[in-house]
Amino acid sequence: MNAIIAEGLVKTFGSGEKAVRAVDGVDLVVPEGTVLGLLGPNGAGKTTTVRMLTSLLPLDGGRAEVAGHDVATDPQAVRASIGLSGQYAAVDENLTGRENLWMFGRLYQLSSRQAKKRAEELLEQFALTDAADRPSKTYSGGMRRRLDLAGSLIVHPKVLFLDEPTTGLDPASRLDLWDVIRERVSGGATIMLTTQYLEEADALADRIVVIDQGRIIAEGTADELKAKVGGERIEVVVHDPEALSRAVDVLQRGSDGQCVVDEHTRRLTVPTATGSKGLIQVIRDLDEQNIEIDDIALRRPTLDDVFLELTGHHPEEEKAAEDEQAVAAEGGAK
């Protein structure tokens, strides 16, 4: 059985010449009890897709079913079957953490006693017990994020939509949430996950869909996507920034691909078809040129490589651009 089915999803904002087709014919099939990772650059259409599938945005084209219910004709049944955690924490800042969770439970038609019991369980699970009776406006960003995630789990939804759920969480909290997601899936839940952290998709997703400019440009398992990028990579961290250009020449000699340079970290990455033999040769060549290195390794392609190959830039660059936009917007608001 499939928990999510989408056929030819279309969403357009604006009209006439200024119309923007944010989602342009997206097809998705997500079997029950699996995790689908939805990746793509900022503005690719990920969040718009999630908002359509959760009935928060009307469909301009195509059709979709979630948990066996048609999103367009039976949105109330869809909402009763799902949990949703959006990009921004949707909590009442004037209520305490405990009150927020109790309210979420009542909105899901739990009795007051059931809502209180579930709130206590989630406060403990998300390490919020000590702050349970403080107004959530006093919470840090990470704490508000955890409270929002707890709210999406107040019941046991058949389908859970998580839109960049670990943004703002510290590494330990992120790993804790991964465990929560795995626990939900082992219990039969289906999860659609959008994320900026490629290692998150690699660790959690059964299948990954890469979306760009409103269209799906690649899909498959993590291993299948990595295989599309090609063989292994040699990574070198050069000790002296002044030696970067010479090191690039050395790495480029025995490679049939382009050497990628990160000047900030002094890291060079180049594809190799000869594996460990190529690595040994690079070490010898660098030594002959008296180029000192801090680190060198041979590794398989990662989802970061896939993202770069498909979209033309690293996700870190995307995240930096988002942060700059947020800072600019905050400055303008002041």
CATH domain fold name of the largest domain:
Rossmann fold
Elements, N to C (H/E): EEEHEEHEHHHEHEHEEHEHEEHEHH
Count of strand segments: 14
Strand content: 25-35%
Molecular shape = globular
Number of helices: 12
> What's the average pLDDT?
87
> Which stretches are low in confidence, meaning pLDDT under 50 for 5 or more residues running?
319-334
The CATH level-2 architecture of the largest domain is identified as 3-Layer(aba) Sandwich
For this structure, what is the CATH homologous superfamily of the largest domain? P-loop containing nucleotide triphosphate hydrolases
Share of residues in helices: 40-55%
Quaternary structure annotation:
single chain
The largest beta-sheet arranges its strands as 6-7-8-3-9-10
How many strands, what sense, and barrel or not for the largest sheet?
Answer: 6 strands, mixed
SS-derived structural category: alpha/beta
Under CATH at level 1, the class of the largest domain stands as Alpha Beta
Round the Cα radius of gyration to an integer and report it: 23 Å
